[in-house]
Amino acid sequence: MKKLVEVVGLKKHFPISGSKKVVQAINNISFHVMPGETVGLVGESGSGKTTVGRCLLGLTDVTDGSILFEDQDLAGPKVRKKHLGDLQIVFQESMEALNPRLPVFRSVEEPLTTLGFDAAARAERVREVIDRVGLSQRLAKLYPAELTGGQLQRIGIARAIVTRPKLLVLDEPTSMLDPTSRADIIELLISLQADLGMASLFISHDLSTLRHVSQRVAVMYLGMIVEQGPAREVFGRPRHPYTVGLLSSVLLPNPDLPRPVPVALKGEIPSPIDLPTGCFLASRCPLAIEQCRAAMPPAHPVGEDHFVHCIRHEALGHSDEMSRVFDAFERETERILSIGARTN
Amino acid sequence: MSGLPKFLLRRLAYLIPQLFGILLLSFCLIKTIPGNPAVLMLGPMAQPDSIAALTKRLGLDQPLPVQFLIYLKDLAHGDLGTSWQTTRPVLSDLIDRFPATIELVTFGLLVAILIGVPLGILSAMRQKSVTARIAELYGLVTGALPDFWIGLLLIFVFYTILGWAPAPLGRIDIAVIAPPTVTGFLTIDSLLDGNLDAFFSAISHLVLPVLTLGLINAGPIMKMTHSTMERMLQSDFSRFEVMSGLPRRLVMRHALHNALPPILTIISVLYGFLLGGAVLVEIVFSWGGAGQYAVQGVLNADIYPVLGFVLFAAVFSLFVYLLVDIAYFLLDPRIGR
Amino acid sequence: MNGPLVNVTDLRVEFPSLTGPDVAVISGLDLAIEPGQVVGLVGEAGAGKTVLARSIMQMVPEPGRVTKGRAELQGEDLLTMSERRLQRVRGARISMITANPRGELNPLLPVGEQIATMARVHLGQGRKESRETARAMLRKVQISDPDRRYAAYPHELSGGMAQRIVIAIALVCGPQVVIADDATSGLDVTVQAQILMLLRDLAREQNSSMLLITRDVGITAHVCDRIAVMHQGEIVEAGDRQAVFLRPAHPYTIMLLAAFSHNKRLRALWSHADADKAAPARGEQACSYVGRCPLAQARCRAEKPMLRMIAPGHEARCHFPVVR
């Protein structure tokens, strides 16, 4: 199958005013998204994951590297214009992306106006997507301030899918929501994707969500993809110390399950301004050796379509402890939930 | 404090272009004032050819840029031109008059600070209290009343009716021998001279105009103090200090420390503004200061006194701003490092 | 000392409303913290968790006010305490940590000085002694190079580092209770766990009790001894962590746990998130969860349930608790 999106050697540096230094937000990353596939992009704040989404959408220019959409470089003349509507984004806070002075359906139809739809076709499409995201038509006539967080996020999704995009970039779509509405929004996204056949890039720091929604994942740390591969592989048998550290920091609400800490990351994420020459994790990694600080580790294949940027990945062992904990939690939670539930 | 010299150097580097810009702008603006100084100087009976000759001698027939360059060249030699009204070099005129204005404005501002800052703090501390209401009213009144009117009112009450204050005619009693000029500030010079008569006379002449300026300008200082103190007291760090059981005194002191930069800014802006802005008060009290001198210049197309005043005021303001920047630097570790 | 260290009873906090009578953000709330205990308070945004914490500190956010109830520290009511006496209690016997560490610190004072100030004010230490105390505290919160960091200003620190300083300020006087209100939500995931464990270990070492307030249910399962679940200003379920997480009784607690499940059917059974329309009217004598509850019956609309014991040490505010 042909790749829908291919990112090759992407770099993004932000200049710091009054200084010759730059913020190295993205440092030479490559990945791709197949049609209809969900790729998870996971990382903590400052890992550059949001910037990747913004680069894809053309919301910020790239420093180096290329982004191909259906084999065409989006930087080429008129290419982005041709694919207007094929790439859409849902932001973390839809409230900020919506015009507070317009009823929300106006914001939903706006992308269609740019694409030259006439009024009748727009109204038709808007009705359709409002239904599709599970909101009543009445709510669409309200203003952003009158909606709840979960409803706003549904509007944000409606606005993004109204053009029937081929790729949906989801930038932390659930991180501002309460756990309950979070689960609903994720459910909605999964079903939308199945129905509409879109591919999506799901950007999040929430591992238990990504584990659930994505087919493949890429783990970002300080603007680098340190590990990428099939979700089952990466979460089941993580090969990068950072992935392991990230997974073990997930606290599941079950006191009986052990919290395995095979890799305890020390300290905090360094500033992305003066990055060291070697592996960016070396200062926090318990496995780091002298060699790690000498040069940036290249990609090692560790399985089918599974790569890790770590020269010490063998020292990590084949830990699947975390995966077992996740599965045990899921089983245990289902058992708890089954009790007392009405089965009508 | 290793960063301070570097910080100062960077600030000083801006000084020259700033001064140049101010001069250029005021030169152009003054030149838009209609009227030929040559005509005014020679009077209504002058012959056209003598006007032309004087125009040429003054360089007024040259294009504007050339006139400006000539002015700059003279300036570089310490020549600020001559006032045709006083027929004296502008530099010596200003040296005579500028300290009078600065003395007046400085004392006025000190009084304004002494009224405005404590009142602002008190009203921020006790929201909705009587003090806060009085302060609010006070801010309103000072914003609405013109300073010369307050000056006249004070003269009426304290000179005309009560007779406590000396006549509003200058900086010192005519009967008192003025001290030799050292700094130009009568209060300081008289003390240096050991001449207490002159000192008390200077002080008594200062009281009413200083009070006028102080009462009016305490308004904006109080408002700024009030609003920034209020903001600081409601900020997370003040709340955390209260939550940590720090005594109220300490919480207030920390809040004030954080509120100082904006207060300093408004004070420095007022300082620069008052050099010219106090002119009405100068006129009311026949102060003979630089502001009065400059206004005379404007009214009579006497451009060199005006330019000279602008230059003096600009240098003074920039110097004050520099001091404020240094104060910022010392107060706030986030600045300039 | 017998009885709980902190005892909140029948607390009611009201806020004026623009459109009608005052709104009770907290009502009929009871909460006890035993010496040395770590209590987790969980609930969604808007449940009134922060208002509760601030009420205990006697710093209710404006324009709210406490209209009923007591909040006792060792039998002494904090809500009626004089400002002067409160000043000696806050920071010394009861202290609080919140989500925005960089905002909590005075930007113009070196961080070490801010810790030392606490020791001077509350422990009566001198200049030199307080500095030593502050340095020792910096070491305790695992700040590397404490001598250099002592002189650092808040803006020079990362979020995690700033949170360690705030923790140091909160703990330096060895308080009996520490209230941590959303203390780690602003931090990166890999740092969150570090800070939480540090906070718990330090509290344990000093034998301080802790009230850990969070939206993140997962955190409490691993850090707390006892859990209280809050919904719309009321405690709806409380018990030790085993009971609350493994044998949840209130449908709201179960719904919170269901959000973690990927089983769509089970989750749908417990969450009626869009059913808010049917929520009880303000002041109505009904269960506050009735609008969202999948198990609601006629009685739930007619009568407000009380918090009652369903097993030893396990309470729920529900007419029909799920019993296992």
UniProtKB/TrEMBL annotation, chain A:
GO terms for molecular function: ATP binding; ATP hydrolysis activity. This is ABC transporter ATP-binding protein. Keywords: ATP-binding, Nucleotide-binding, Transport. The lineage of its organism: Bacteria, Pseudomonadati, Pseudomonadota, Alphaproteobacteria, Acetobacterales. GO terms for biological process: peptide transport; transmembrane transport. Pfam families: ABC_tran, oligo_HPY. NCBIfam families: oligo_HPY. GO terms for cellular component: plasma membrane. It is a peripheral membrane protein. InterPro entries: AAA+_ATPase (IPR003593), ABC_transp_ATP-bind (IPR050319), ABC_transporter-like_ATP-bd (IPR003439), Oligopep_ABC_C (IPR013563), P-loop_NTPase (IPR027417). Residues 5-247 form the ABC transporter domain. It is found in: Cell inner membrane. Its main location: membrane. It comes from the Bacteria. It comes from Acidisoma cellulosilyticum.
Automatic annotation (TrEMBL), chain B:
The chain crosses the membrane at residues 12-33, 104-125, 137-162, 198-222, 259-287, 307-331. The keyword rRNA-binding does not apply. It comes from the Bacteria. Pfam families: BPD_transp_1, BPD_transp_1_N. Keywords: Cell membrane, Membrane, Transmembrane, Transmembrane helix, Transport. It is a multi-pass membrane protein. This is ABC transporter permease.
Automatic annotation (TrEMBL), chain C:
Keywords: ATP-binding, Cell membrane, Membrane, Nucleotide-binding, Transport. Coiled coil: none annotated. Signal peptide: none annotated. It comes from the Bacteria. It is a peripheral membrane protein. The keyword Cell membrane applies. Transmembrane segments: none annotated. This is ABC transporter ATP-binding protein.
